[in-house]
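Exercise: predict the structure of this protein bound to zinc ion.
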Amino acid sequence: MKLATFTAGQTPEIGIVEGDSIVSLSRAAPRLAASMIELIARWDALESEVRKTSGPRLALKDVRLLPPILRPGKILAIGLNYADHIRETGREMPTKQVWFCKQPTAANGPYDPIVLPKVSAEVDYEAELVVVIGKGGRHIAKDSAAKAVFGYCAGNDVSARDWQSATPQWMLGKSFDTHAPFGPWIVTADEIGDPHTLGLRSFVNGEKRQDSNTKHLVFNVWDQIEHVSKVMTLEPGDLIFTGTPGGVGMAMTPPCFLKPGDRVRIEVDRLGALDAVCRAEE
Ligand code: ZN
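Solution:
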């Protein structure tokens, strides 16, 4: 099942994407769940009712897709997690998982503009598989980590490289507003099965920049969930950006950063694509 947050006017609604249309759960069953996070948190109780809902139906082209989760509780991200990307950054293969946060205010819709900040001249893209936490929990063992996942999205870990490299801690360079686009919807985990078989690609103005597969993750999704849940409780709707393969703009010769008007497309097999135009901050 594909679940989206969208608006056909002012109010955000949640719905089920089916082909080129969307069934509004917010209209069919207004008391079901007020938000995607609530739907995820109460999924065991609500799933059968959600699956029975068949209308009202809107054309996808007539709605605006919003970030599937408007304000995730956490946006966690792992760095240096594909061998070819580690090589292009000139760093050593990590023996420990390298984690950072993107702030929840960076969440951005799948087709919404990526804003190039006035204070950065080095904004870059990173195609990534994004994990949406379902039940979550604490001290989740690797072999039961799949049960903690609600679903998956495509994501772009947009990175202001000048801010990222200015200090050892990357959080500021990874947290500019609009710099965590994800979506275009959540594909539930039952539809995907093993998430380590998905091709992922990025394109800038139609030119392919990254082309890899999640089978090349250094620390796979289950390793990641086991590791971070040693530290913090993972909660419904939390996101994990799982790392990017080689081919980022920073590693090109000369480096090639995003400019106003550039179109960035991020695709992940079976999850869909983000497609956004960059614009300068006003
Ligand atoms: Zn990343």
